[in-house]
Write a structure and sequence with these properties.
By secondary structure, the chain is mostly helical. The chain has a domain of 43 residues. The longest helix is centred in the first third of the chain and has 23 residues. The radius of gyration is 24 Å and the shape is rod-shaped.
Length: 114
């Protein structure tokens, strides 16, 4: 009798906990299920998926606008060099403040201030 009661209490407790977990929804790590908005990455056609994820992660974790702009400028130079080595040409990079991630106007380089 005591064993059955303890088992019932334990079973009810587990069911309640699983219900709370299910109600909270699935928990994903930040990288899981996240797609890189590749139209916001200058030279993205020259980058691997791994590089795109690293780029986005690094840019999102930067604090100051000046730091982001410096990173973006260095990235543009790197992509222009890579394109030249591959015999390709990239379009002109967007001007400062026209970036979709962390930019001042959130335009993603499309239709922002010119």
């Amino acid at each position: 009798m005591l064993r059955t009661t303890l088992f019932s209490i334990l079973l009810i407790g587990l069911l309640l906990l699983s219900g709370v977990t299910l109600a909270a929804g699935p928990q994903k790590s930040p990288a899981v299920g996240k797609q890189v908005a590749s139209e916001q990455i200058y030279g993205q056609q020259l980058m691997s998926e791994q590089e795109k994820l690293q780029y986005q992660h690094k840019l999102q974790n930067m604090g100051r606008e000046q730091e982001k702009n410096q990173f973006l400028h260095q990235h543009q130079q790197k992509m222009q060099k890579r394109a030249k080595e591959m015999g390709q040409t990239l379009p002109e990079p967007p001007r400062e403040g026209q970036y979709g991630i962390g930019g001042k106007n959130g335009s993603g380089g499309k239709g922002g201030k010119r």
